[in-house]
Automatic annotation (TrEMBL):
It comes from the Eukaryota. It is found in: Membrane. Its main location: membrane. Residues 39-512 form the Major facilitator superfamily (MFS) profile domain. Residues 1-20 are annotated as: Disordered. InterPro entries: MFS_dom, MFS_sugar_transport-like, MFS_trans_sf. Residues 9-20 have a biased composition (Basic and acidic residues). This is Synaptic vesicle glycoprotein 2C isoform X1.
Amino acid sequence: MTNVSQQDAESKPSQKSMSDGHEYEEVLELIGFGCVQWVILIASGLLLMMVINETMGMSYITIVSQCDFQTNSVYKAVMSAASFVGIFCSSYFWGYLSDAIGRKPVLIYTTLCGNLLSLISIIIPNFWIFVVARFLVGFFIAGASSTTYAYLGEFFIPRHRPIVINYASLFVGISTIYVPAVAWFVMSMDWSLDVTESFTFRPWRLLTVFYFVPGLIGAMMLIKMPESPKILLSMGRTDEAYAAVEWIALKNIGKHLHDLKVEALKSDAFSDRENILSVSKSPTVSFRKMWAETAPLLKRPHLKNFCISCIVMCGLFFSSSGMGLWYPEILNRLGSSVAEDAMTVCDVIEASVDQWQANITTDVICNDQINTKSYIDTITYGSALITGYIVMGFVINQIGRKASITVGLAIAAGCALSLVWIKNEAVIIVCFCLYLVLPGLCVSVLSGVVVDLVPTNLRGKAVCICLMLGRTGSVFGSNIIGILLESYCHITFGLFSGFVLFCALLAFLLPM
């Protein structure tokens, strides 16, 4: 009798597996963290690194191309914002597509298309055509910009997800070192190639090649990786999801799922939804169904938290990317200042404007050189960002995500405001770095929050929309600086400080 009871007890898990299946996260717990997760983590990091290279890398290209394209501050702002506008225009579409057909194909194909367009842009001699090309690069790399977080997060159990997303974002810090280091190396070359009478190929055009290489490597790494089992389950493709998890188990621990007493995976509650790409060829019907699948984000219980997340994300990009695009430019002016007395940032900018106007009247030869100290200071900023990502992982564990974002943004707002009157150059660099680093660190943290706040079938769309609206902050921030900085410097820094402080207060309302 006892033996029969024991046999029944032992058979219960198996019966559960066959009838209901195991939860995907339960199986991940059994498999553990292994080589598959490491490869996906590194590949995802490289894709994120490419996105930062292609967007923030324009901060150097705007300087070194100013003589070729004859650009002023407004044109530089347009050039810098082009890729962000491209990301804004396509993020929702790629997010929807990643929920409809899967994360992996969107990541691979959008990255490769963006890389090809980036390669083509190096031979474009006309300013406006170059801007269009950068817009198209942004249009495609938007797929990697936001889908990466959803794809990466779905290979980890909820307990590890925030930390893993944070450490994948270490590659953002690596990018902020990589971009100035590559620019320093390339711009040290002194050669030119006359292609036509009106077009000379100069070293700065090679920068875009270096920028997209990490993304190309990341896409190649993903080719052999499986699709996210989580999204496959949400699409009702349970057999493919089981095969993907089986592959992960074999690679990680060398065992089949049936060795772990896992015979089936529990299907997602949303697996019966239609795929509009396969059931409709009418654009009107497709857009209606696209809206119908996205509308839950704008209804309870998601509306409040989703809207707050989007506004805060906009503030994060407004400061870290909007101001970050001008960081090398401002540092270049700071390092090129010949004044003997200590000056604030605004004093230096006003002096540089006066010098530029004097150069126009005296026909001085165009200068597109970057001060060596500007490279060093930007590399220092990148090192601070990497350190910040490492520290952030421990901070999140200790005080949580809400406090991390709120405190970080409050400190950043104080640093931005202090730049108005600080005259010591070393302190200026420290405050500037903190103002850019702290909101930048919060981007990945907030992306992880969005992933956790919505169900699987909405994650791709939610993260993409949130980051899409966040990128508008980059566009507005960059253009506001281009228009206001030289004429209303103090107001500019006050505006940036106030918006970041407002976002800190909003972040406190999120359930994290």
